[in-house]
Amino acid sequence: MSRVVVAGRNPQDVSSAIGFAKMIADASGSSVVAVALSGGDELGRAVAGIASEAYAISGSGHAPELMLEALGRVAGPDLYAVVSPALKDLTDALARFSAGAGIPMLTEVTEFARGAGGEVTLRRAAMAGRAVAEYSVVPPFAATVAPGRFPAPQPSGTIEVRRLDVGARGPEVLGVEPKRREGVDISSADIVVGVGRGFRSKEDLSLAFRLAELLGAAVGCSRPIAADYGWLPEDRWIGISAKKIRPKLYVALGISGAPQHMAGAMDSKLIAAVNKDKNAPIFQYADYGVIGDLYQVVPALIRRLEELRR
Amino acid sequence: MIPWQLPLAAVPEIKYYLFVQGLYPLIIIESIAAAAICLYGSYRSFSRWLMGQPIPIPDHLGARLANVLRYSFAQVKVWRHRLPGVIHSLIFWGTTLLLIGTILDAIESEITLRFFHARFLIGPVYLWFKLAMNIGGLMLIAGILLAYYRRARRITPNLPMGPMEHYMLLSLLTIAITGFFLDSVNTYAYRMSYMFPYDVVGYSLASLYRDLGITVAQLVPAYRAVWLFHMTLAIMSIGFIPYTKFSHIFVHGGLNVLYYRLEPPSAFRPVEDLQGKVERGEVVGATTASELTWKERLDLDACVKCARCTNVCPAFASGKPLSPMHLVQALREAVHAGPSSKLVSDGPLAPEAYWSCTTCGACVRECPAMIHHVELITDVRRGLVSTGGAVPEGLSQALYNVMRLGNPFGFDPDERTRWMERVSTDLGIPFAEPGEEYDYIYWVGCNTAYDPNLRPVAESLLRLLKRAGVKVALLREETCCGEPARRIGDEYLFSENARSVGEALSRYRFKSLLVSCPHGYNNFKHEMPLYGVRFDVVHHTQLLSRLVAEGRIQPADASGIRVTYHDPCYLARWNGILEEPRSLIRATGAELSEMARHGADSFCCGGGGAQFFFDIKIGERVSKIRASQASATGADTVVVACPFCNSMFRSEAQSFGLRVLDVAQLLEGGRGALDQASRGT
Amino acid sequence: MRIAALVKVAMDPNLMKVEPSGEVSLRQTAMAIAEYDRNAVQAALDLRDKLGGQVAALSASTWGMSSERRKDYEAALREALAMGVDEAHMVLDDSLTGVPLDTARALAALARSLGGFDVYIASEGSSDMVSGQVAPMLAAILGLPAFTYVKRIEPEGGSLRLTRDLEDALETLRASPPLVMSVTGESSKPRLPTLMQIRRAFSKPLKFYSLADLGVSPSGRARRTALRALVQKRKNVYIDGSKPDEAASKLIAALAEEGVIRA
Fold first, then answer.
1. What residue numbers bound the domain in which A253 lies?
2. What value of ipTM does the predicted structure carry?
3. Of B598, B580, B585, residue with least CA distance to B637
4. Model's pTM, two decimal places?
5. Which residues of C touch A224 (CB under 8 A)?
6. A197 in contact with C at a CB cutoff of 8 Å?
7. Which of A269, B150, B379, B435 has its CA 20 to 30 A from that of B372?
8. Is the peptide bond before B221 cis (omega within 30 degrees of 0)?
9. Assigned domain for C224 exists
10. Is the CB of C196 less than 8 angstroms away from the CB of B397?
11. Strand partners, B621
């Protein structure tokens, strides 16, 4: 029986991509094999009833090299696919594994379908979300998916988690500095208010937070706010190399709409934008675009919402 | 008694060197020393300005000397402000009289008398001479006292008052006062009976001595001391002119006016040997003192810190890190520090200072020393661009967009084409075809062509022209005219762009290029010709006012509406087009309330000089200041004649309850256009 | 130090053109260096400035059109040269269709044919496709260590101190060349080249190669079969914000109408 390996740094990672793995496995008549860098029993609880095998790595070291080694060990000769959530260390490991094994890989896949003659069709977003690229791929292949994009079946029963002793020689790690977190998960919020360079100071962001409060929204931001100014922690950063959001409504305030940002926000069902620069690309992506100074428009929105909520 | 009624012999001759026997050699030594000091200082100044280049021989000498008469002697720019004009002229003309008198004195005593035993300051001439000297001295003293008053009362903001200013005023005052004392003793000694009223001050003082019973003999020791002091101070002040702010008399009054450009100041100077510099990999523009032109270095030394530039500067007024006066002073220090000193550093020379300039030209218009601040700033911007220096991201992006997409905003060029095609179909305006002849080709300009808020301006204009039977066409090849590139300081991109614009336009036959953007107007009129691209160009307000005057356009009615008109810098100040837009407003019957700063003295909207393409985020918005000035007229409608101004005012319109519309829209729609504007369409 | 900057000539998403068939027009969409690849170039230049040596830009086509758009490919690479790269080499071959595995193989062959490099720097992803895997794939093919998502590069003696920017942490590592890395968009602020810099870079070497020249062929395991433009589904309703209160009411009414907020 062919195998679909689903990889994660931890059980949560595995869960966030196992829906995709299961879909591929069902379509191809494969079994699901789960592998995580950590998480013993927890991994078992997460994949029981979905995966037929589960492996937790016992060694310690640098994540991409550990995972690369582990994938080599669990893939086996009848590999059909390797999948993982689209996270940095995992994308790294999968890419190195694929190139080493000579199998094609696609990241952030949005659709999978079986084609004729054993080929599969994979689709993914391109051109900053303005186009869809379609590939015909001969399995085995590797793919990553946005975490949680394909819903995972409910785990049931138990499964034995096998320890995998890997001794990958990764690079010398000099230090790990955890990032400031606020624990907000903008990727699962129903409404997101995004703030961008149109804000003149960190203090002024309170306008956006007040608006978000009235809308029941989470606050996200564009690259300069998190990366350049450090006004907000990076878990609020929306973009290609950061969080991708899929809200019902995205309200972009003072955001110009660079492709890197929009690629993280394109899945929003409805986009409203406030920007005083009518030339800003954000207006091309917006359903409703208010051309005006956010310092005037946002307070007006707040006033109006406060009236309505009263 | 009237002088000419006096017998020649009745007026005594001047007794030179009275009471000061023995001091003469001292004065000769001082004079020689002063001359040496002065020559050395001048030599230093010249070598600093020229930095090895030969001094150019001025052409068109007649026109240049006329400039010297106008600006240096008649002081027309100084007189743009009344009190400073009065003060400066009292001091300048007073000193000039005294200097001429002293020279005449010296000629008589040292030349005509010594070698020819002849005199010319005799009889009535001498009396007139005395009167003139008295007037000169009094003017000087009055000027200095007024100058102190002006500074004590801080009548002019930002006016520096340091040791140099005290030295200048006090040295002149001392020379004038001691001069009067010396004169009075002479008068007391031998010419009392003839000197009233010609030597009014000397005579009055002499009378005082007489009334107090002081004898000449008692005065002699003091006289000798004061004489030596007066002469030393005067001689040394002259000797040290090249080292003090007095140098402006020659640097500005003489040289920099003599070498002042004969072409209009809005024909911003191009880079010499641009292609060669690009090919050889040299700096284009200026990063160090030696890369400025010799004339720029000369101009810097002409600055007298009068603060007029700074006091009209919109960047300064809005709290940006630019003060033209301090910039010029800091650049001057850089030049004095040596050829390799950097023009961009910190303080007044911070990159942000250069990037804060809107190129509105208010400083250039004001500067009595004929400094072209905008060209200086542009040269340094060019230096930053060509050496990969501190260029704001937005501006690098704008340049890249111009290069790649033919517009500074980064729009897909197809958007311009699509809109033009729609206009062409809807309004029946053809695209220019080779072989066909047109009255005008309308160069819409990027701002208008891409902005949904500004496109109606072009559409109004085209409807008016069509109604007036003007044969006008659109240009399929329209692209960026290059103005933003030139303001940002990418001269190479500008020159290449100008060449391709020239090539595109030369395929068609038309009388004039029509523009609705003053920046494009200035570019086509004064800047592209610098690179050999010449087309006759007309601004839409000029054309419309002509058509109204000829009765070919019936202005819509806007009577009973009060509006104010904002003069675009590039139309009014740089190009003197003041009347045409106003005549159009009047033709609609609208009532025009002028802002305090209007016409050629207009205050920038904040959008010029590439400010439109980035946000400096320091201080207030210039546009906000201007909008509040507009609002202060009581009118609720601002009429504009420039897409940049239009956008800048629109961004402030809400806070001030202003409606913004172009002259063309007012002319076409009258009150209806105003109603539309109020609905925000 | 021989440094290679990996540069993709990408389609500009903001200037996307669509064929009547609904496919993205590979003929008309403007191309340029992928935005973050400018960071890769900048990182390579910075490293050269610190350690000395040469920087070569390596590229492989992903959009075909090798004859029709050769000028555009060339213009994009000239930008890298204008930024300061010493020479540029590109595999330009219509059988490359943007399958990252094939791209990485072509780049590896190109690098080998040039004698190999000490440091290879790519970006974290290209603006048109954001596949983000060419750097680690290249490392695997060349048998070199890979360091992805690098935000900071600090030379330290003979080695490099690299800071990787991960989702939840900054990770600092010691790395010794030869190696492959990918840098993030935050790693530097690359400058857009000016026309003058491009003109001055015209004398620098720029060479094209076909896959045959390099003796490799595509894996045949995957190919891009379509690139469909999404029908513009955004409504693009503009609201004039110069009257904020009116604008606020309009926007809130519209959003309530859409059922995404409660009004």
1. 186-309
2. 0.91
3. B585
4. 0.89
5. none
6. no
7. B150
8. no
9. no
10. no
11. none
